[in-house]
Amino acid sequence: MCTFFYIFGTYRSLVSQKKENKYVLSPLPPPKSKIESIEILRQLSRSSRVLGELKGIARTIPNQKMLINAIVLREAKDSSAIENIITTHDELYKALSVKAAPDQETKEVINYRKAILKGFDLIQAQGFLRHNDIIALQNIIIENKGGIRKTPGKVLKNDRTGEVVYTPPQDFQETNALLSNFLEYYNLRQSYTEPLINLAILHYQFESIHPFYDGNGRTGRILNILYLILNGLIEIPILYLSSYINENKSEYYRLLNLVNKSDEWESWIIYMLKAIEATSKQTIERITQIKESLEATIEFVAQTASKIYKKELIELLYEHPYSKIEYVVKKMGVERKAASRYLQKLEGIGVLQSQKIGKEKIYMNVALLEILKRH
Ligand SMILES: Nc1ncnc2c1ncn2[C@@H]1O[C@H](COP(=O)(O)OP(=O)(O)O)[C@@H](O)[C@H]1O
Ligand SMILES: [Mg+2]
User: Fold this and answer.
1) What is the atom index within ligand 1 of the atom nearest the CA of 221?
2) Is the CB of 208 under 6 A from ligand 1?
3) How far is the CA of 210 from the centre of ligand 1 (A)?
4) Intra-chain end-to-end CA distance of the chain, in Å
5) Tens digit of pLDDT for each residue in 183-211?
6) Is 146 within the bounds of a domain?
7) Rounded average pLDDT over 91-98
8) How confident is the model at residue 359 (pLDDT cuts 50, 70, 90)?
9) Are residues 125 and 267 in the same domain?
10) Residues 61 and 142 in one domain
């Protein structure tokens, strides 16, 4: 705890001297009195309980890759929708399974998925994140090498009225210093306060530093899931707040703003904790449905098409909501002819539905897609 105040105390006093207008961002952390109210602690215990349950249930899924694939793509779609980048599940899965170039919006969502998986690899390999890692993630999403903002002029406006609601730090040095302070706090494993409260604080701070010209929202939401994993609250990247944020979007902006303007942390932290509770519940439900659907399909195929039945074949259909002959060839080590026969048989008994796109034929897992599209 002492080391903690040493690290952050020095910087805090330096920056507070510079406060000449109301929008100057303070480095982390905020005072404890602002972030550990009774209301916050009450909501914290509800959110932690459900999140713990999700962690346990995720462990019971035999093939983790199956979950990651399905749920990461849903998050990529939802988080991009917050930024008004809209695509459909069908477009996404098609873009992932055939070579044809997707439209711009679908491409950005696919980039977002790539960035989540890259972030997951990075933290598994290193156990922390660096400046350059964050830049690399943003770069995957936006596909340009703009890096940290260097030219001043960036302001956040209200979409409807055009009114400037927030001015992030304009000076390159200051932005970098704040980002270093953010990373120090992010990588700290002996917590200043509870990790879920930290998550809310960190997300606010990252969005307010707004280090990039574009992609700050999406990069920040990837940092959230990585933070949960780094702190052992979940093991694989399957909990995402974006569906909640989408449904409560004006609150998201209003509360971020309220911290900017009046240092009002309590309602922002409670909002984020509630998002964790709600999305954990949703994810538990979705995982349970996927698991039940997998089990039912295994049983059905074993009974009605016992000649082609293999457990790994059915698991493959749950790793890729859209399957192709080559996936079967690769996973099961069979000839194309056999692979094609398996897929056709599965279509014959109603488990799959094929679709021709250009020269390629893809097979949708009807039951799984239905679960993934559900709200
Ligand atoms: N008043 C505010 N204070 C801090 N951050 C904000 C505020 N209003 C919006 N934001 C953040 O800015 C994000 C949008 O920034 P942007 O760089 O366009 O990201 P993206 O391209 O991913 O949309 C929002 O998702 C939100 O997280
Ligand atoms: Mg944007």
Assistant:
1) 27
2) yes
3) 7
4) 43
5) 999 999 888 999 999 999 999 999 999 99
6) yes
7) 77
8) confident
9) yes
10) yes
Which ligand has the shortest distance to the CA of 213?
1
pLDDT at 81: 85
Cβ 260 under 6 angstroms from ligand 1: yes
Domain assignment present for residue 27? The answer is: no
Range(s) of the domain holding residue 361:
305-373
Same domain, 81 and 177: yes
* Residue 99 belongs to a domain: yes
How many structural domains compose the chain?
2
How far, in Å, from the CA of 217 to the mean position of ligand 1?
A: 5
Query: 3-state DSSP call for residue 354?
Result: strand
**One domain, residues 262 and 324:** no
Ligand 1 and 134: CB distance under 6 A: no
Phi, psi of 365 (to 5 degrees): -85, 100
23 pocket-lining for ligand 1 (C-beta < 6 Å): no
Same domain, 215 and 347: no
Domain identity same for 90 and 211: yes
pLDDT band at 69 (very low <50, low <70, confident <90, very high): confident
Does the beta carbon of 324 lie inside 6 Å of ligand 1? no
Query: Is 11 inside any structural domain?
Result: no
What pTM value is reported for the model? Answer: 0.90
Classify each residue of 338-370 as buried b or exposed e, where b means 16 or more C-beta atoms within 10 Å of its C-beta.
Answer: ebbbbbebbbeeebbeeeeeeeebbbbbbbbbe
Nearest Cα to 197, choosing from 26, 29, 1? 29
Interval 279-303 mean pLDDT: 95
